[in-house]
Amino acid sequence: MNYDVLVIGSGIGGMESALKLGDMGYKVLVVEKEASVGGKMILLSKVFPTLDCASCISTPKMASTIHHPNIDVMTYSEVKEIKRNKAGKFEVTVLKKPTFINENLCTGCRECEMNCNVAVPDQFNFDMVARRAAYIAFPQSVPKKAVIEREGTSPCTYTCPAGIKAHGYTALVRGGKYEEAFNLVLENAPLVGSLGRACYAPCEGECARGRLEGPISIRRIKRFVADEYYKDHVQPAYGVSEERKDKKVAVVGSGPAGLTAAFFLARKGYPVTIFEAASEPGGMLRTAIPSYRLPKDVVDRDIRNVTALGVEIKTGVRIDDLNELKDQGYEAIFVASGTHGTRKMEIEGENLGGVISCIDFLREVNLGKDVSLKDKTVVVVGGGNVAIDSARVAVRLGAKKVIVQYRRSRAEMPAHDWEIQAAEDEGIEFEYLSTPVKYTGSGGILAQVESIKMELGEPDAGGRRKPVPVKGSEYRTEVDMVITAIGLEPETKAFQKLLQVNSNETLVVNPETLQTSVPHVFAGGDVVTGPSMIVEAVGQGRKAAFFIDCFLNDESLEGVHAREYEYKMPVVDKDKVIARQQNYRKLIPVANNKTLLSKDLDFTETELPLTEEEARYSAGRCLDCGVCSECQTCVHTCPAKAIDLSMKEEKKVVEVGSVIVSTGFNLFPAKLKPQYGYGKYKNVITGMQMDRLLSPTRPYNTVLRPHDGKVPENIAYVLCTGSRDQAVNNSLCSGVCCMYSVKQNQLIMGALPLADVTVYYIDVRAFGKGYEEFYQQAKDMGANFVKGRIAGIREKDDGNLTLFYEDINNGGKVMEAEHDLVVLSVGLLASPDAKNLFQNASLETDEHFFVKEIDEDISPARTSIEGVFVAGAASGAKDIPDSILHAGAAAAQAAAYVERTRMKK
Amino acid sequence: MDGIRDVREIIREEMVMRDRILEVLQEGSKTVPEIADAIEYPSPEVMYWVMGMRKYGYVTEDGQTDEGYFLYRPVKEEAK
């Protein structure tokens, strides 16, 4: 679509230009970066000198702009580039930011905003109050449509292999919404309790708060959520899916991957049967992880989340022939048989009684076999988490001495540091740079381990320094048991006649879809990845379910579907997150408390849960990296089903004949006058903030002190804050500060009849029609005008403020005055928005960086670029009547230019 | 940390503080300084939270004291 004129910005100037051009019959495109048209005027209380309601004047223009037949408006959009093409027209690139709301469905009801769980400063109320990540800009917004502020995917959520919305459930816990938090985790993983205890929490490794005092305890928050939910829900609150499908699916293995795949397939209505070789379901959750880390009743409850959907689990059934399942009518198979094999050390004596693999050892203990190591000496070989688990279990079974032998040093140990620390606390000895070379015994029973000392040599292919035996350093240890934990591998021999297998025994799959070379067979979890994290297996299970569903629906597994499954917004830059705040309150993470160690360790869970207070405190440390937490509350509460979190930005290129720059102005940042204490003293506010307080859509219930909510009684105005001030390199008189202050004086005296108002000024510039009378009216109403510039402001204990000023009309003495609220009448600065938009032409600016009018006296609104015009305060500080007049001139200029260029053709 | 806290951080905490403030207001309507005393936080921070809660329908005004402070009370759930 091509337009006659592009108008950049939809403040009063932009709207006026667009409306005039539209009325003349020109096709106009208005581009506005905010979610509503209206600019700053709509945020004002009233206009001077008539004291007409700003909203009453603005809103008809806003509605007319949006609904005008000749005007198209792109809100929440930004012009990225303008360049003149060979035909002499302007080619404009516009980026429409995703609002994540379907505009056609949104009714503006604010349910999303009212239920949103992320609070951020409200820029439309100049940070005096919160808004939500999901919000409607302000009550008179046109269009009245919500937007969701999303800066990207939060690092915690982005990094989770299962796609669990860690930021989302953290935000829900922060707000005390525990059940919602549980249900949010359940959307991606049925094993909420197990993950809350045994997940290695890659989310915490990416937490931006880790750059401050330490990451948020995301995993323990999840455990809190699960514990709270399971306390009240012994059984899941749902049953078999109402959607029923007739194609049966078989899942081989009931570990995290298998359970998760079954869960998601059953939710879609598929009849699912899980075949489990062990006597009880749960895979590694059940057989490998000791119950002091993961109590088995938690695993049972997690599994009920799956079986409640009608999933049948057949235990004690080992599947070796996948074709049999096909013959039994299963139309898709998911192989998730895990890594239940262990690598051999291939050393002498490995078959002696008393030498056992870690997996066999842990399985026996976890499945309830009566194992006692009372007064025994145990050597555990290996340095991973399973080795540590084995050692700690051995201690609990009564071993008098447990030694972990690891061939590298502690620094290279793959086990997590906190696991090693816990083992040390429990009295386990570590022999680093040592490895067994031979097991000896008599009568087929182990008696000794012969080990050798190692030293670290050159780095291997993986970058770790390779251990090298030290000649002659052999030593012997009398032992009763050796537990080998040098690596796990899948047992896939039985599948080899049907499926492709890698050299490390893992199954070959398409990594995008988890489909094997046999179309109806999918595989995932450790049997594909090798030993990994629970959450990785959960992610694979969910992914497999997605693609098995596609397969059973005869849909393509490539292309669109794959992208839909994987789509996440790009991850937020943590540096940018940290830079959002000037400073941070120190919030120390809750200590990871353990149960008190006693001499007789048992299998009682060692990690103490977070209390409710600790959980909310921990969640309260979240920095809301992505802004929106993806907690899905808006999705669930929107009555119009208008939320679309998959929305993406759109780039649009249009051709226009002429451009009107109407990008308005910026307010002087009052913090640049530190002697006035803005930002430090809460009762020092800006004129714009006072305008918001006086507006019908004010952030407070009336004009109140931000310090304590008291109705002010003695208000001071400091004129020329940041204008006519060489100290801040701005000699410009903004032209409006005197009059908007006088306007506010009158409104305050109307709203707060008992309040005194004092205005500290250099001189009052009342130059427009009716302005002098307006100024006199304020004085007559009781406003006190004191000639003198404020040198400094100090805060008192009660929030009142002492102002120091030169009393010019009374001999120039330095005086002090106390007020309970100070308003800084900040000046207007140029907006830099338009300066760099033009690619092959230069948009010149004046000495104050406003867009320069090259022939202001006789050809207003013309800029240094032929065909580009400026409207309103983008060309210089202006009051509203002047802005409207100027915008009319810009419209006329643009229309004339369009006609003139047409005539040339 | 000494001095003024970042507004973004204070506002973010509204979600954590909301229930504590509502709990305090169960005892009866209170002014911002009274709430601040009860939850032991500075009144400028409580002002952000109470005004956020007011905007989103959790509290409302309930009269004014002679000292010029408004009292706030919880909004009943069904009225929200």
Notes on the protein architecture:
Chain A is an alpha/beta fold. In chain A, strands 1, 2, 5, 6, 7, 28 and 39 form a seven-stranded mixed beta sheet that branches. Chain A has a five-stranded parallel beta sheet with strand order 14-13-12-15-27. In chain A, strand 32 (756-761), helix 25 and strand 33 form a beta-alpha-beta unit. In chain A, helix 5 (166-174) packs antiparallel against helix 6, helix 10 (256-267) packs parallel to helix 12 and helix 24 (737-751) packs parallel to helix 25. Chain A is elongated. The mean pLDDT of chain A is 94. Chain B has 80 residues and is α+β, with helices and mostly antiparallel strands. In chain B, 49% of the residues lie in helices and 14% in strands. Chain B has helices at 7-12, 14-25, 32-39, 43-55, and strands at residues 59-64, 70-74. Chain B has a two-stranded antiparallel sheet. The longest helix of chain B has 13 residues, at 43-55. The A-B interface holds A 113-114, 117-121, 127-130, 132, 171, 174-176, 580-586, 616-617, 619-620, 622-624, 679-680, 682, 699-702, 704, 706-711, 713, 799 and B 1, 3-9, 11-16, 18-19, 31-33, 36, 43-44, 47-48, 50-52, 54-57, 61, 64, 67-70.
Short synopsis of the structure:
The complex is a heterodimer of chains A (905) and B (80). Chain A is α/β, with parallel strands linked by helices and 905 residues long.
Please render the helix and strand layout as text.
The complex is a heterodimer of chains A (905) and B (80).
Chain A (H helix, E strand, L loop, with lengths): L1 E7 L3 H12 L4 E4 L14 E2 L4 E2 H14 L3 E4 L2 E8 L5 E7 L14 H5 L3 E3 L8 E3 L1 E2 L11 E2 L6 H5 L6 H9 L3 H9 L5 H7 L3 H5 L11 H15 L15 E5 L3 H12 L4 E5 L7 H4 L8 H12 L4 E4 L6 H6 L2 E6 L5 E2 L12 E3 H9 L10 E5 L3 H12 L4 E6 L10 H9 L3 E4 L1 E9 L2 E15 L5 E5 L5 E4 L2 E4 L3 E2 L31 E3 L2 H4 L4 H19 L7 H7 L7 H6 L32 H9 L12 H5 L12 E12 L3 E3 L16 E3 H8 L19 E8 L15 H15 L4 E6 L9 H11 L2 E4 L2 E6 L5 E7 L5 E7 L1 E6 L1 E3 L37 E3 L9 H25 L1
Helix pairs in contact in A: 1-2, 1-26, 5-6, 5-9, 5-21, 6-9, 7-9, 9-21, 10-12, 10-18, 14-15, 23-24, 24-25
Chain B lengths: L6 H6 L1 H12 L6 H8 L3 H13 L3 E6 L5 E5 L6
Antiparallel strand pairs in B: 1-2
Helix pairs in contact in B: 2-4, 3-4
